[in-house]
Design goal:
This is RNA polymerase sigma factor. Keywords: DNA-binding, Sigma factor, Transcription, Transcription regulation. With 181 residues, the chain is mainly α. It has 9 helices and no strands. Helix content is 77%, strand content 0%. The N and C termini lie far apart (47 Å).
């Protein structure tokens, strides 16, 4: 853990400083976690909901964090799990498959006033949506957030070699999707 994370964690684990520490944690990680979540759930409103759920879960469970990984890895893991759970809940509620829910999210992305991408971004998002879930996660974390394989490994609890292979396959599939007519 970095010195900054260690200081923040010590605040979070002291009852009289927990609220102050939590405000710092939100300030430090809110934007990065939002975009991580947004790349998974696609919708701005859903991303806001999942981000809020993520921070609630972090607040309730910060005492259980042992410091065996970096704090941001733990936060990203919670955000990832909350995002995937959210997508599964949507699919279950609508009685559709996860793939159908993902496709619906992509269709709504085109009319999302918070989406600032152009037609190429939409096509890239559609290409990413064709990937298996793990490849989507790895690609999003590597391509959009520029995380290192060691960081992704901590977040997804997978070996770096497997992540490199997943990313390589994802890139090849995306290239094939983007160049087909």
């Amino acid at each position: 853990m970095t010195n900054k994370e260690t200081l923040l964690l010590s605040k979070l684990q002291k009852p009289n400083l927990k609220n102050e520490g939590f405000k710092e944690l939100i300030s430090l990680y809110k934007e990065r976690l939002y975009w991580h979540i947004r790349h998974i759930v696609k919708s701005h409103e859903d991303a806001d909901d999942v981000l809020q759920n993520t921070f609630i879960k972090v607040f309730k469970n910060i005492d259980k964090f042992k410091g065996e990984s970096q704090l941001y890895s733990w936060l990203y893991r919670i955000a990832t799990n909350e995002s995937l759970t959210h997508l599964k809940q949507i699919a279950k509620r609508q009685q559709i498959t996860s793939e159908e829910a993902n496709n619906n999210a992509l269709r709504s992305l085109e009319s999302d006033v918070y989406f600032e991408g152009d037609t190429i971004q939409i096509k890239l998002q559609k290409a990413i949506a064709t990937l298996p879930e793990k490849q989507q996660l790895v690609f999003n974390m590597k391509y959009f957030q520029d995380l290192k394989y060691s960081q992704i490994s901590n977040i997804l609890d997978t070996s770096e070699g497997a992540l490199k292979a997943s990313y390589h396959l994802a890139v090849k599939k995306i290239e094939a999707y983007l160049t087909k007519d």
